Structures are given as structure tokens and as C-alpha cells.
Amino acid sequence: MRVFREVVAGVRSLFARGKDERDLDDELRHYLAMATNERIRAGMSPAEAERAARLEIGGVESVKEDVRRVGWETTVETFLRDLRYAARRLRQSPGFTLVAVVSLALGIGANTAIFSLVNATLIRNLPVRESKSLVYLHGSSPSAVFSYPDFDEIRRNNTAFDGVAAWGGVTVSMGTGEDVTAVSGAIVTGNFFDVLGVHATAGRVISDADDVTPDAHPVIVLSDRLWQRRFNRDPNIVGKDVMVNGRRFSIIGVAPKGFEGAQLETTRDFFVPMMMQSVVRPPRGGYSGEMNPDLLRTRGNRWLFAIGRLKPNVSIAAATASLAGLLKEQQAREASDERGVSVTMTPVDDGDPDSRRQVVSAVTLLMSVVGLVLLIACANVANLLLARSTSRAREIAVRLSLGASRGRLVRQLLTESVLLASVGGTAGLGLAWLTVNLFRASPPPVDALPMAINVGIDGRVLAFTLLLSVATGVVFGLMPALRASRPELAPTLKDDSFTARTRMRRVNVRSALIVAQVAMSLLILVSASLFLRSLRESQAVNAGFDARRVLTVPLSINLLRYTRVQGRQFYADVLERAKAIPGVESASLTRWVPLSGNNAVRGLMVQGEEAKDQGFRGENGSSGRGNPNATFVQVIGNDYFRTMGIRLLRGRDFALADAPGGPSVAIINQAFAHAHFPSADPIGQRLSVSGPNGPWAEIVGVAADSKMMRVAESPIPNVYLPLAQNHETGMTLLVRTSVDPSGLAPVVAREIHTLEKNLPAASARSLSDWLDLSLYLSRAGTIALVVFGSLAILLASVGLYGVMSYAVARRTKELGVRMALGATSGDVRREILREGLGLVGAGIVVGLVAALGTTRLLASFLYGVSPTDAVTFATVPVLLVVVGIAACYLPARRATRVDPMTALRHQ
Amino acid sequence: MLLDTLTDARPDGRMGDTDVMQGTLDMLILKSLTLEPMHGFGISRRIEQISRGVFKVNPGSLLVAFKRLERAGFITAEWRPTENSRRAKYYSITPRGLKQYKTETQDWERRTAAVARLLEAN
Predict the structure, then answer these.
(1) Which of B63, B79, B87 sits opposite A67 (nearest CB)?
(2) A588 neighbors A314 (Cβ within 8 angstroms)
(3) Which listed residue, A195, A380, B46, B58, has the most CB atoms within 10 A of its CB?
């Protein structure tokens, strides 16, 4: 209440300044009159009485000032006045203001842009109700998932949660009329939306009523994004039908904007009930339409993610303990000796630890770099301010000697700095906005990023920019303000030129700033150069296959639930048609496309080798690496190696003779041969990837190594199996062309469509596209670093130019004397250049020391380049020297133009 | 004892305005207004009179204190005309101010009693 009254009184006072002044005058006048009269009555003369009375009151103005200061509104007024004054001063020196604002705009803008990236990746929250009480449930490891029966057990019998829901990722063929495309979404339990607390913006969401009878609930909820892109925000969308994997589903609602599933890293564009799993989640891998395990009952098939809302006041530790108890009971009951399933939980707000880690390290690098850029910009503006303050020295000296407090002066100068920084910050915000929009206009291709990003300038980014601007203003303004408010009063007022000592002290600060700027620029440029070289190495690496002329087209026949026979026929037909297209040299099939980030890992047994039985199948696992009991497995069609351009080193390729039912065969790559048959001939040896009773395949060939997951990897042991003997339903067509593959893509697509019109028109990509995609992040990072490096060097060179110009101006008299005494222009020019390059040299030395110590932190980003790469560390300093010479050139030339006579007269 | 604005004269000659001293001045002003409304000059003399000459208040600090008390809602002011058609600002205490005065007095008495006890002990 008291605060309110103060505020009101202050505001009223702000608008009634004149009245308040008059009141104060009158009050003082009355006091004076009374005090005078009192003394007159005591016997003093009127004149003496008045003087005594005035003495009692003291300084009238100072009293008034004290009274005024009681109200908070005075501080505001003073601030506004300072602001107006600062604005006027900035307008009066447009050159200075322009350079300062541009420097700050670049520095703050870069930071804002990177922060918006941080905002879009690390600080997001799931758009659900009260995400704090939600936890992800995992099996024994953070990436482990559940089977439906296991999950159901947890859902029914837990005591720690208000609700536990589950979902799985699916990709379906969605058809509206003639238009059939592949769309990713989620298959969810009935309580999914309830547990998350998400409601529909149109129609309704899936509820428990839709989760009762298998196959009886063909309903679908669309994401807002899908509603917009595919259905044009049709206002009558609820109730319409859509074909999903060939079956008619009814659209019952639309999810809120921004809700795209329960995981931030993956976008789900639709939601269907769990009971529809047989339609929506057809089996992949070796299962064909005939064998359709009921996922609702199969305990061994683990594919579900789970999320739970903790009961109020139940901690994660308590819930984990209660679930552990539950599972132990269940295991005892089942008497199963299966691996001890344990359950762990992580808070939903923490996100997915794996993708988070990747993002954190990349983002840390970027933020450090732009932080350095901003510091360089601040150093520039600080230098400019220092130069300016020497020209204001007289004004400040006068004010100080008239009684202005130093604190008041510093406050006023800081207001100027913060105003400057705010203007720069606003301009920087504009720059960042442009950059963000540029990024949104040409978003990265799907699959290029480990998580979905939605970059934008929102409230948090604005707040960040504001805070950063103010902080920046204080950072670069404080030192100049402190220095400026402490000039040597006597010599300044006497208008003497500065004593030599003062001059040197000031120069040292400015030189130190330049040295720091050069050092920081060197750091950034070294990083940029290392990234550039690393990217070049990655792009030049020999992938082991010929990426330039191979087209890949996914054939997801698992969505259509072909039987095995139908599948084989389809594959044969597709290959025949593809080979018939003019321009096609050969065609084949593969389960996994190299460098697409997908793979398969199976337990391995090699005849004659001691090995433990694994017998597991996994997909997209990296656990195969380095484990001698597991191996990467590729199922391929005939002619694979010829189509891909991979050399066969020994033995033969798969042929028509390797038919279903015939003797099992396999081909290995060279890395596998080195790992398992270092001294023996692999041809003729046997291996099994399906356990001790599985078919033992005879090795008939050895292929050259080729890249499988990432460009930067070292050779991975791999086993190739023939498609004919290992039927798979998710193969990708490979087509080798003699012309540019993208030209043939529509032709191939048309041929496939003629064969099977219900297949989603999937994206055809050339292998070199896949290669580029896998390098997208490297490329983006490199571009960012090069841009920031250029900014840094630009700012530093402007700073150097400024300091050298000032140095020349300061030494005008001295230079004039020297030229009058016979120094040539060459001598003078060299002198100036030497001074400037001395600064650059010192900066280079400091920067090199710092770089040698810190670039090892970049090692995880680099490929084929050492963090202390000699070429980089040699060329960057040379670049800086060249830039330094360019920046000093004009001031040096100006130094030679000094007219000795004018110089000698100059003060 | 002439204390400029009831401040502590520090050994180095600087004057500091402590909250305790501010509070004392406020209390004296409120006290003098409990008798009847008064203008600034009158309050100054009244304080001098009440404290039997111990406290002589500087007019500047008095005016500052008036504004502070007004903003806090403990006193109100009105203008009354004087002879020679000028005007004088008369302050009067508000109910809230009266309550504050009572509270402050109790506090003060409690504190001085404690100090007295401390000084008496051993």
C-alpha cells in the first residue's frame, strides 16, 4: 500500500514540477520570514536578522536539491535528462556513433542469433500440462524401450503414478485421393493425451474409449502442422476420412499447435490408437504379411516409449523403487529367467540425454565464439570512447571543479554507453531476425539434424538481447567513464598538453585492447580454419563406393503387407523395369543405405571361434561396434557391388544360383576378414547371425571396405547376406546411372508407381546427396565459424585503424619536427607501420599461446586434422599481418602528409 | 549541543545520516504535531523547546523529513494564508502517523531500557 502511494505521489509530482517548485519556494520564504522576525523581536537589526536567518537555512539551492531527491521521481527525471543529453552528444558526432553502433550491432546480433538457437534446442519445454511432474520411463538403459505386455503390467499395477501412457513411432502411407505419401506419427495408448494434459483444438483427442478392442477403432488425430500442410486447414476436417496403409480411418480431431508428440526430438504428425497396431505398425525386417506377430501380446518385441505422471509429492527415487519392487514380483511370478528388466526414469524436462549432449557441445562452441566477437566489438567501442573522452577532458574538469560528484559524472557517461549499446542492440536484433528468417526460409533437409528445431525470436530471446545490451554498455563504458572522470585538473584547466606520463598510460590501455582484439580474432580464425580443413577432408574422403551416379529409392512394401511370394515378385519386377530404363547401367537392392544413419546389428558366431551365443536382433544400434560377438549385417540383392561401385577383392558376388532354400552364403568385407581371419583364407569359412541353430552361411566373397554410418569412421566389420535367402520387407532400390541421377528420379518413380500405386511416393536421393546430408552439420558449423571469423577480423581491423589514426594525430607535432629535421616520408611511414604491426605481433603471440592451449577442445569436431595443425597455425598469423598492414596503411600515409610548419604550430 | 540534523559527527569530520537518527527526527516531528498542526518554522522551534535546547534542527533536513513523512502518509499538509498575503504550509498528523508515533515510542523506550540495563550490568 505504501509503495502504491509512493508511486502515485511520484507520478503526480513528475507532471506537476512547476507547482512543487513554487510550493518549496513559498515554504522556504515563510521559514526565512519567521526566522528573521524572531531575531528582530530579539533585538537584532533587520539586516543582521535576515543574514542570520539565511545562515540558519544554509544554501537554498542545496536544500531544495535535498528535498527534491527524497522522491523517486527525481531519479527518473535525472535519468531522462541524462538520456536526452547522451542522445544529443551522439548525434553531434555521427562518425563515432555510426562505427560504434555497427560494431555493437554485429556483436550483439551474432549473440542473439546463436541464443535463439540455444532457445530452440536446449531450453524448450514440451507443450504439455505441468511437465515437471512428468517422467520418461526407460528399460535397463536410457534408450531401452518396452514391449506392450511389460508396459501394460506397469500401467495396471503401479502405485506411484497418476497415469502411465505409451507410444511407438510409425511411418505410414497416408492417402487422400490420388495423393499418397509417407507420414510419420505415433501409435498411442488411450490415456496418452490424458496423461499429458493435451486437448484438441478441433474435434477431440484419443481417449480410453478408443483403446478397447483390437482393430475396432480406425480413428486418427492430426497434428496442427499436418492439418495445415496436407489439408490446408480445412475447417470441416473433423469427420473426414483418410486412407492409412490402405485402410480407411476417420479424422476425429486436431492437436494444438506446437504439439508434435511426447518427445522434443521427433515430430509426430498424427496419432492413432494402440488397438490399431496391426494396421499401422506392420512388421518390418524379415516378417512378411503372412507372419504378423501380435505386438500386443509379444513380450520379446520391444518398441514402446513410456511416460508417466507422478502422483503429487512422489519423488523419482520413490517411484523407481516402487516399480523395481513391482517388477521383481512379476519376475518371480513368471519364473522367467530373462534378463533382469529394470526401469529407470528421467524427468521430461531434461529431454533426451543423447541428442542433448551432442547439441550442448556444438552450442557451447558457437556461444564462445560469438562471445569473443562481442568482446572484440566492445573493445572497439571502448577505444573509441577513450579517444573521445580526451577531447571532453576540459568540460569534465570544469564540471568537477564546480562541485559535480564523480559518481554523478560516471552515471551520466554510463547512460551514454548504455544508450549506445541499446541502439546497437536493436540494430543487432534486426540482423538476427533477418538471419533467423533466412534460415527458416531454407530449412535443413529432413534427416540432416539430430532433432527438430523451430528457431524463432520469441520473448526469451528479446529479454536476452535487452539484458545483453545493457550489460555490454556497462562493460565497455565503465572503464572509459572512470578514466574520464578523473583527469588531471590543473594541467587540463590550464590548457597544457598532457604530461608524457599521462599520455603513455592512456596509450597502454588502448594498445592492450588492440592486442586483445587481435588475439581473440586469431582464436576464432584458427577454429574456422581447422573446421574448413576438416570439412575438406571429410568431403574428399574415399567413401569406398561411387556416390556420384547412384540413385536410392525406398520401397516400403511392408506397409502393404505383401506376402513373401508377393514381395519377391515385386522386387524382381522393380529391378527388371529399372534396368530397362535408358541411362541405367545396373540396379540392385539394399536394406540400409550407407551414411543414412541406419543399420542392423546381429549376434555373430563364427565357426571355429569361441563365441557366446547372442542370438539377438537389433536395429539402429551402435552396440555392434567393437563387440566381437556382434556384427553389422547388410541384406543386399544381386549386383549390389557392381551398382555401388565397391570392389570385390576375393571370391564372387551373389548370383541367381543362391536361391531360397539353397545352401546359405554370405560375403564379408575386408575389415571383417582382418578381425576374424587374420591369417586364414576367409573363403569357405562359415558364420551364423541367427544363433547356433541358425543357418550357417558359407563365405563366398570378400568385398572392399566402404563407409557405413559416418564419413569419419574407421572401417567397420560387416556381413552381407543375399536377399533371396533372407527376405526383408523394407528394401531400398539402388540404381546406377550413366547420367545425372536426379534426372532419372522421376522416371524411376513413375515405373514404381505403375507397378504398385499404393506405395507412397517416397523421396529418391542420390548417394552423394546422402553424403552431403551426413556432412550438413559440419558444413553449417564451418560456415558459422567462417562468418564469425570474418566479423572478428573486420572489427579488429577497424579498431586498429582507429587507434593508429589517433596515434598519428597525437604525434603530429613530433612527426612534423622529425620531417623538418630531414626524415623522409618513407621513414615516417615505416615508423607508423612498425608501431601498428608491433601491436598486431603482440596480439598474434598471445593468441597463438591461447590457441595452442584451447584448440584441443575442438578435437571431437575435427576429422583428418590435428587441433594443432601446422598449416592453420602458420597461415592465420600471416593473414592477420596482411590485414594489419592494410589497416595501418591509411594512417601511415596520412602521417607522411603532415606539413612541418602547421605541425609545429599545433598544440 | 548543536547537532547538525541530528547526525553523528564522525572523527574524520564527515557527516553521516544514519537511519537511527532519521528515525529520531521523525519521531520528534510527529510528537510536536500531536499537540496541534504547525508550520515548518514552528515545528523547528517546538523541537528545540521540547528537547530543552539539546537538539537544534537544521531546516534543510527538516524539510526533507517533512517530505518523507508526507509520502509515508504519517502527516498531511495544507496551505493557510498569512498576513502580507503570503501563504504558509501547515502540517498535521494523520491517524496512521499517530499509530506510528506510538509504535516508535514504545520501540525507543524498549531500546533505551535495554541499553540502560547493559550499562548497569557489572
Answers:
(1) B63
(2) no
(3) A380
Phi, psi of A177 (to 5 degrees): 70, -125
What separation in angstroms does the CA of A84 have from each of A88, A91, A119, A566, A840? Answer: 6, 11, 35, 81, 39
Closest CA to B29 of B65, B58, B64: B65
Three-state secondary structure string covering A319-375: HHHHHHHHHHHHHHHHCCCCCCCCCEEEEHHHCCHHHHHHHHHHHHHHHHHHHHHHH
Q: How far apart are CA A288 and CA A565, in angstroms?
A: 9
Which H or E element spans position A20? Answer: helix A17-41
Task: Please report the pLDDT score of residue A601 as a whole number.
Answer: 78
From the number of C-beta atoms within 10 Å of its C-beta (0-12, 13-18, 19+), residue A583 rates as middle
Q: Using an 8 Å Cβ cutoff, are A273 and A309 in contact?
A: no
Give one DSSP letter per residue of A410-447, joined into a string. HHHHHHHHHHHHHHHHHHHHHHHHHHHHHHHHSPPPTT
B interface mutation test: which of A67, A69, A72, A73 has the most B CBs within 10 A? A67
- Alpha helices, DSSP H, located in B1-122: 19-35, 40-50, 59-72, 95-120
End-to-end Cα separation, chain A, in angstroms:
62
What's the residue count for chain B? 122
Evaluate whether A114 touches A436 at the Cβ level (below 8 Å): no
For the question of whether the overall pTM of this predicted structure is more than 0.80, the answer is no
One-letter amino acid for residue A346 of the chain: T
Nearest to A735 by CA among A542, A575, A544, A545: A575
Q: Which tens digit of pLDDT belongs to each residue from A363-421?
A: 899 999 999 999 999 999 998 888 887 777 777 888 888 877 888 888 888 999 999 99
Label the pairing between strands A179-188 and A161-176. Answer: antiparallel
- Top-confidence residue, B4 or A629: A629
| The C-alpha cell that represents A860 in the structure block | 571431437
DSSP three-state, residue A274 = helix
- What per-residue string of b and e applies to A175-197 under the rule 16 or more CB within 10 Å gives b? beeeebebbbbbbbbbbbbbbbe
Give Dmax (Cα) for chain A: 137
Chain A residues contacting B via beta carbons under 8 Å: 2, 5-6, 9, 23-24, 26-31, 33-35, 38, 56-58, 62-63, 66-67, 70-71
Indicate the pLDDT class of residue B55, thresholds 50, 70 and 90.
Answer: confident
Cα distance between residue A433 and residue A438, in whole Å: 9
With CB atoms and an 8 Å threshold, state whether A30 touches B82.
Answer: yes
Task: Write the secondary structure of A67-131 as one string of H (helix), E (strand) and C (coil).
Answer: HHHHCHHHHHHHHHHHHHHHHHHHHHCHHHHHHHHHHHHHHHHHHHHHHHHHHHHCCCCCCCCCH
Q: Which amino acid is at A682?
A: P
Tell me the C-alpha distance between A556 and A562, whole Å: 10
Residue A667 contacts residue A687 (beta carbons within 8 Å): no
Complex ipTM value: 0.83
Interface-testing mutation among B41, B43, B78, with chain A (most A C-beta atoms within 10 A): B41
Residues A893 and A808: their CA atoms lie apart, in Å, by: 10
Cell matching residue A372: 569473443
